[in-house]
Design brief:
The structure holds two protein chains of two kinds. Chain A has 17 helices and 19 strands. By secondary structure, chain A is an alpha+beta fold. Among the domains of chain A are: 135 residues, Flavocytochrome C3, Chain A, domain 1 (Alpha-Beta Complex), CATH 3.90.700.10; 121 residues, Methane Monooxygenase Hydroxylase, Chain G, domain 1, CATH 1.20.58. In chain A, strand 18 and strand 19 form a beta hairpin. Chain A is globular, with a radius of gyration of 24 Å. The two termini of chain A are 41 Å apart. Chain B folds into two domains: 109 residues, Ubiquitin-like (UB roll) (Roll); 130 residues, Fumarate Reductase Iron-sulfur Protein, Chain B, domain 2 (Orthogonal Bundle). Chain B is built from nine helices and seven strands, in the order ββαβββββαααααααα. In chain B, the strands form two sheets. A five-stranded mixed β-sheet of chain B has the order 2-1-5-3-4. A two-stranded antiparallel ribbon of chain B has the order 6-7. In chain B, helix 2 runs antiparallel to helix 7. The longest helix of chain B is centred in the C-terminal third of the chain and has 17 residues. The relative contact order of chain B is 0.13. Classes of the chains: A alpha+beta, B alpha+beta. Chains A and B meet through helix 3, helix 5, helix 6, helix 11 and helix 12 of A and helix 1, helix 2 and helix 3 of B.
C-alpha cells in the first residue's frame, strides 16, 4: 500500500487556500446527479450531510440512534476552541495550531492541524448564525473560558452543554434539508459493511434495527463519521451504542487504520462505584478552570477532605507543573492522578480517586458565580454520587474518553479506499497522540462544514466511475456475508451473555493497554484476546431472531468487531516502543516520570493494512515531517 | 434490596402488550435504574428468555434516548432527572415497580419499552431551524445579544427531545417540546426573520402528527428532565397569535425571483 498524504506544496499558511483553488469543481446542475451516503449524524456527519445537501448533492444519512439529534457529540460539555482572539490575550491561528501540535506530542500532521486552526474561526460564525446560544458577556459579546494545554482563553461554550447546542445547530440544518427533499434519513439503521467496486467505495449494507431487514444502498461516495472506539474498553465515557463496526468493516475492505493505540484517558470523571456500572460519566475539563486538584500528602489518609488541613494537602498539578497548574493537558493530568493513587494517596472507596476542590473559587467568586458556570455539572455529580460538590470536593478519576487513532485519511480526508471519506473522531488526522480539550467539537465541525464539502467535489469530478447500482454482484455478496454473520451469532446458543464477554475484554484491555502499557502486558494481551474471542464465538448466547428488533444481536455484532479490533490496538501499542501523549509505555519514561518520545524511530503515522483473516496486518508508515515547528520535548512546567 | 418489577412486554407494533412480573434480587443502592434492568436482562438472557427491550444511549442525561414511565411517572418523577440518572437509592427493599413505555398515540410502541418518536423530528423539519447555508456567516460578534436573551434562549434550547412531556400529558400534547424550540429561536435575533413562518408550520405539523391540545395542567413541566418552563408555552402562544393575525392578510407579492 502506498500512502500519499497529498499535502499541498507551498508555505503552511497558504496551503489550504492554494489547494482549494486547485480542487476540481462540479457545476451546480451536475451536483444533483450525485448520491452521497453519510454514516453517523454527530457533529461531523450532520454538518457534512447538511452542507452537501445545501450544495445540491442528494444525501442519504444513516444513524443507529432513533433520531440524528441523539448522536454522542451531544454529550460534549466544555466547549469549542477557535482562534478568534476576542480576549486580546495573544491568541492567533498560529498559536492554536502550535498548541494543538504540541498538545498532540508532535504526532499529528502539520498541514492538517494548521487548516483546522484556520477554519476554527468560521465555525463560530456559522454556529452563531444558526442560533446556537453561546454564553455571552453583559455587553452582548461572546464569552470565553480557558481549557487544558493552552494559556489563552479561546474556548466558546454554552453552559456545560456545548456539544448539545452545536449538535442541535447541525441537526437543525440537516432537518431543513430533509424538508427540502435533499436528505433522506435512515434512523435506527446500522451500517454493517462497506461495498467496494473496482477499488472504489460505492455503497454500504445496512440493517434496519426495527425490522431486521438487511438492505444495500449505492452512492457515488461514502462519508464515514461514526465516531471513536473507546467502548472497546467496556467502561468509557462514550454512549452505550458507540462502536467500531463501521470503521472496522471499512478496514477489512481496504482502508488503513492509523495509530489505534492513541487513546485518550480523560482526567476528570466520576470514579467507578461498583461492578454493575455500565458507563463512566465525565465531569467537564472546564471545571479545572476553577477547581483545584489535590490528594492528601499522607498515604491512607481517610479523613474527610474538609478535615485535612491545607499543609497536609498535595496540590500535585500545581506543584509539578507550575506554569499550567490545574490546566495541564489531559494525558499528563491523568497519569499524575494514577501516580498519586498508585502511591496509596487516593481518596474514596478503593482509593481510586483524587479531589477536585472548589472551596477557593467559591470563596473568591461566590457560590452563585460557580453555579452559573457549572451548575448542571454539579447537579449531574450529585445525582450520581449523592454528594453536594459545593460543600465537599468532587472525587474524580481518569476514564477512557476519546480515540485519537482512526482510519487513515489524506489531506482531502479520503481513506486509502478511493471514494471513502472519514471525518471527525473516526479519522486519525488532527490530534496526534493526545487531543486537547475543546478540540473534538472544532475538528468534527471543521471536517463537516468546511473541508469535506470542497474535497469531495474533486473526487467526484475526477474519479469518473460508472454509476453504482445495488444490483452489482459486490452488493449481493456483501448482503449475504452480513446475513450469514447474524445467522452464525444467533446459532451459537451458548451460555454467556454478550455483556459478560464485553466486560471481560474491557477489563483485560484496561489492565494491559490502559493508562500505562508495557511489552510484557501487551504480549500477554495478544495471547489472551484471540482465546477470549474464540470463547465468544463458542459460548455466547444471542436470543431472539434476526428479522425483528433485537438488541442482543446488535450488541453481539458490535462486540464481535471489538474483539478483532482489540488485537490491532494492542499490536500497535506494542510496536510503538516509545511514550507519546496518551500512549505511555512504562519502559520509556524520563527520570521524573514524563513520557519519553523517540523521534528518530517513531516520528511516523502507523497505518495498518488488513492482509486477510488469518494473516498479521501490514504496517505502513507515513513519516511526519515538521517544516514549521520544532519537535521539542513537551513541557508544561 | 429485592424488588418486584411489573414490566410492559410487547412483541412489536402490531401485537398486544401485557405486563410480566420479574424479581430483581440484590439490587445495590448506587446502581442506576438502567443498570438494575441490565442485571435483570443478564439473568433473562442466561435463562434463554428474551431480555426486556429498552432505549438508552449516553446514560448521562443528555441524549434524550431513555424513556420509560416508572410507577406512573415519566422518567420516575424526580426533579430534573432522566431515567438513566435515576439511582436505586430512591427505592426501598420489597417495593413493587411498574415500568411502562411512553403512552401516546403519536409515539407508537415498537417493542416492549421502545417507542417511535420520529414525529418530533418531523416537527423540527417543519421549521425548527434558522435558514442559513454554510459559509458567508457574519462575524460571531457582529451582533451583540443581551446576556439575558442568550440565557433565556439557552433555557429553552436545553430541551433533549425525550418526549416525557408528551407521555405525562393527559392529552399527549407536545406543546412544551415545540414551544422550547420556537422560543429558543424567536428569542435570538438570528431566528427572528422566520419567526412567524416557523411557529405556524411547526404547530401545523404538531397537530397533523396527532398530538393533543394543551390545557395548561403543567404535568409536562413537572416531569421535564431539563426543567423547561411552562412560560415557553405562553411565549409560543403569543408568537402564534401574532403570526396568525399578520398572516391572515394575504401577501400581495407572489413568486418570481
Amino acid at each position: 500500500m502506498k500512502l500519499d498524504a497529498k499535502i499541498p506544496a507551498g508555505p503552511l499558511a497558504q496551503k489550504w487556500d492554494q489547494h482549494r483553488f486547485a480542487l476540481k469543481l462540479i457545476n451546480p446542475a451536475n451536483k444533483r446527479k450525485h448520491d452521497i451516503i453519510v454514516l453517523g449524524t454527530g457533529l461531523a456527519g450532520a454538518s457534512a450531510a447538511a452542507t452537501l445537501a445545501e450544495l445540491g448533492y442528494n444525501v442519504k444519512a444513516f444513524c443507529y440512534q432513533d433520531s440524528p439529534r441523539r448522536a454522542h457529540s451531544i454529550a460534549a460539555q466544555g466547549g469549542i476552541n477557535a482562534a478568534k482572539n476576542y480576549q486580546n490575550d495573544g491568541d492567533s491561528v498560529y498559536r492554536l495550531f502550535y498548541d494543538t501540535v504540541k498538545g498532540g506530542d508532535f504526532r499529528a500532521r502539520e498541514a492538517n492541524v494548521y487548516r483546522l486552526a484556520q477554519v476554527s474561526v468560521n465555525i463560530i460564525d456559522q454556529c452563531v448564525a444558526q442560533g446556537v446560544p453561546f454564553a455571552r458577556e453583559y455587553g452582548g459579546l461572546l464569552a470565553n473560558r480557558s481549557f487544558g494545554g493552552a494559556q489563552v482563553s479561546r474556548t466558546f461554550y454554552a453552559r456545560g452543554q456545548t456539544g448539545q447546542q452545536l449538535l442541535l445547530g447541525a441537526y437543525q440544518a440537516l432537518c431543513r434539508q430533509v424538508a427540502a427533499g435533499k436528505i433522506t434519513l435512515f434512523p435506527r439503521t446500522e451500517m454493517l459493511d462497506l461495498v467496494v467496486v473496482n477499488g472504489h467505495a460505492r455503497g454500504i449494507i445496512a440493517r434496519d434495527l426495527v425490522t431486521g431487514a438487511v438492505t444495500a444502498h449505492a452512492g457515488d461516495a461514502v462519508v464515514m463519521a461514526t465516531g471513536g472506539y473507546s467502548n472497546v474498553y467496556y467502561l468509557s465515557t462514550n454512549a452505550r451504542g458507540c462502536n467500531v463496526t463501521a470503521t472496522w468493516r471499512a478496514y477489512k475492505k481496504g482502508a488503513a487504520f492509523a495509530n489505534p493505540c492513541y487513546t485518550q484517558i480523560h482526567p476528570t470523571c466520576i470514579p467507578v462505584s461498583g461492578e454493575h456500572q455500565s458507563k463512566l460519566t465525565l465531569m467537564s475539563e472546564s471545571l479545572r478552570n476553577d477547581g483545584r486538584v489535590w490528594a492528601p500528602k499522607k498515604k491512607g489518609d481517610t479523613r474527610a477532605p474538609g478535615n485535612i488541613p491545607e499543609a497536609e494537602r498535595d496540590y500535585y498539578l500545581e506543584r509539578k507543573y507550575p506554569s499550567f497548574g490545574n490546566l495541564a493537558p489531559r494525558d499528563i493530568s491523568s497519569r499524575a492522578a494514577k501516580e498519586v493513587c498508585d502511591e496509596g494517596r487516593g481518596v474514596g472507596p478503593g482509593g481510586r480517586g483524587v479531589n477536585l476542590d472548589f472551596a477557593a473559587a467559591i470563596q473568591r467568586l461566590g457560590e452563585a458565580a460557580i453555579r452559573e458556570r457549572y451548575g448542571n455539572l454539579f447537579d449531574m455529580y450529585e445525582k450520581i454520587t449523592g454528594e453536594n460538590a459545593y460543600r465537599t470536593p468532587m472525587r474524580i478519576y481518569p476514564a477512557v474518553h476519546y480515540s485519537m487513532g482512526g482510519l487513515w485519511v489524506d489531506y482531502n480526508l479520503m481513506s486509502t479506499v478511493p471514494g471513502l471519506f472519514v471525518l471527525g473522531e473516526a479519522n486519525f488526522s488532527d490530534h496526534g497522540a493526545n487531543r486537547l480539550g475543546a478540540s473534538a467539537l472544532m475538528q468534527g465541525l471543521a471536517d463537516g462544514y468546511f473541508i469535506l464539502p470542497y474535497t469531495i467535489g474533486d473526487y467526484l469530478a475526477t474519479a469518473k466511475q460508472p454509476p453504482a447500482s445495488t444490483s452489482q454482484p459486490e452488493f449481493q455478496k456483501a448482503i449475504s456475508e452480513v446475513t450469514d454473520t447474524a445467522r452464525r451469532l444467533l446459532a451459537i446458543n451458548g451460555k454467556r451473555s454478550v455483556n459478560s464477554f464485553h466486560k471481560q475484554l474491557g477489563s483485560l484491555l484496561w489492565e494491559k493497554c490502559g493508562m500505562a502499557r508495557d511489552d510484557k502486558g501487551l504480549e500477554s494481551a495478544l495471547w489472551e484476546i484471540p482465546a477470549l474471542r474464540a470463547d465468544f464465538w463458542k459460548d455466547v448466547k444471542v436470543t431472539g431472531r434476526g428479522e425483528e428488533l433485537n438488541q442482543s444481536l446488535e450488541y453481539a455484532g458490535r462486540v464481535a468487531d471489538f474483539f478483532e479490533f482489540a488485537e490491532l490496538l494492542c499490536l500497535d501499542a506494542r510496536h510503538r516502543r516509545e511514550s507519546c501523549g496518551g500512549h505511555f509505555r512504562t519502559e520509556y519514561q524520563t527520570p521524573d516520570g514524563e513520557a519519553r518520545r523517540d523521534d528518530e524511530n517513531f516520528a511516523y503515522v502507523a497505518a495498518w493494512e488488513f492482509a486477510g483473516p488469518d494473516k498479521p496486518p501490514i504496517l505502513n508508515k507515513e513519516p511526519l515531517v515538521y517544516d514549521d515547528v520544532h519537535m521539542s520535548t513537551r513541557s508544561y512546567k | 434490596m429485592n424488588l418486584t418489577l411489573k414490566v410492559w412486554r410487547q412483541r412489536d407494533a402490531r401485537s398486544q402488550g401485557h405486563f410480566v412480573t420479574y424479581e430483581a434480587k440484590n439490587v445495590l443502592s448506587d446502581m442506576s435504574f438502567l443498570e438494575m434492568l441490565d442485571v435483570v436482562n443478564e439473568e433473562l438472557t442466561v435463562r434463554g428468555e428474551e431480555p426486556i427491550a429498552f432505549d438508552s444511549d449516553c446514560r448521562e442525561g443528555i441524549c434524550g434516548t431513555c424513556s420509560m414511565v416508572i410507577n406512573g411517572l415519566a422518567h420516575g418523577g424526580h426533579t430534573g432527572t432522566t431515567v438513566c440518572q435515576l439511582h436505586m437509592r430512591h427505592f426501598h427493599d420489597g417495593q413493587t415497580i411498574l415500568i411502562e413505555p411512553w403512552r401516546a398515540r403519536p409515539f407508537p410502541v415498537l417493542k416492549d419499552l421502545i417507542t417511535d418518536r420520529s414525529a418530533f423530528d418531523r416537527i423540527i423539519q417543519a421549521g425548527g431551524f434558522v435558514s442559513v447555508n454554510t459559509g458567508g456567516a457574519p462575524d460571531g460578534n457582529a451582533l451583540p445579544i443581551p446576556k439575558t436573551s442568550a440565557e433565556q434562549a439557552m433555557d429553552a434550547a436545553a430541551c433533549i427531545g425525550c418526549g416525557a412531556c408528551v407521555a405525562a400529558c393527559k392529552n399527549a400534547s407536545a406543546m412544551l417540546f415545540v414551544s422550547a424550540k420556537v422560543s429558543h429561536l424567536a428569542t435570538l435575533p438570528q431566528g427572528k426573520a422566520e419567526r412567524e413562518r416557523r411557529v405556524l408550520n411547526m404547530v401545523q405539523t404538531m397537530d397533523k402528527e396527532g398530538f393533543g391540545n394543551c390545557t395548561v395542567t403543567g404535568s409536562c413541566e413537572a416531569v421535564c428532565p431539563k426543567e423547561i418552563s411552562l412560560d415557553f408555552i405562553a411565549q409560543m402562544n403569543r408568537e402564534y397569535g401574532k403570526a396568525i393575525l399578520r398572516n391572515s392578510v394575504p401577501s400581495k407579492t407572489k413568486g418570481g425571483d
